[in-house]
Amino acid sequence: MGKNADLLRGTLDMLVLKAVSLGPQHGYGVLLRIQQLAKGSLQIEQGSLYPALYRLEHKGFIESEWGESDNNRKAKFYRLTSAGKRQLRVETESWKRLGEAIGGVLSAVPEEI
């Protein structure tokens, strides 16, 4: 994919929840995990990521603890809570329904209208 896709408003929180659901990760690691899962087609700015992590922790969807990163630096590691698991399921189902609805609109042909 030549050009990075733009994130729709409200999508970042769901992507962060998904990334953290795969295992505890420090902030920058969350960003890298999302980019890896998206095969490089999503570019997330650190200036957007850290407010999202704070917001999700404040809502009780993730929790954090201090640890040491791979390069021996002190880092905050984030883990999904049970409330976060429920929220991820709700948001995933919502996005699946939206995707199906948009797919239906985009696949319409003149004869069907």
The backbone outline, from C-alpha atoms, is: elongated
Largest sheet: 3 strands, antiparallel
Number of helices: 4
Distance between the ends = 32 Å
Question: What would you report as the Rg, rounded to the nearest angstrom?
Answer: 17 Å
Number of strands: 3
Q: What is the H/E string?
A: HEHHEEH
Mean pLDDT: 90
Strand order of the largest sheet: 1-3-2
Percent of residues in helices comes to: 40-55%
The percentage of residues in β strands lies in 5-15%
Question: What does this 3D model show about the protein?
Answer:
With 113 residues, the chain is α+β, with helices and mostly antiparallel strands. The protein is 53% helix and 14% strand. It has helices spanning 11-21, 27-37, 46-58, 82-106, and strands at residues 25-26, 62-68, 74-80. The protein has a three-stranded antiparallel sheet with strand order 1-3-2. α1 packs across α2 and α2 (27-37) packs across α3. The chain starts with 10 loop residues before the first helix and ends in a 7-residue tail after the last helix. The model has no long low-confidence stretch (mean pLDDT 90).
Key phrases:
3-stranded antiparallel beta sheet; 14% strand; 3 strands; 113 residues; alpha+beta; elongated
Question: What is the element layout, followed by pairings?
Answer:
Blueprint: H1 11-21, E1 25-26, H2 27-37, H3 46-58, E2 62-68, E3 74-80, H4 82-106
Helix pairs in contact: 1-2, 1-3, 1-4, 2-3
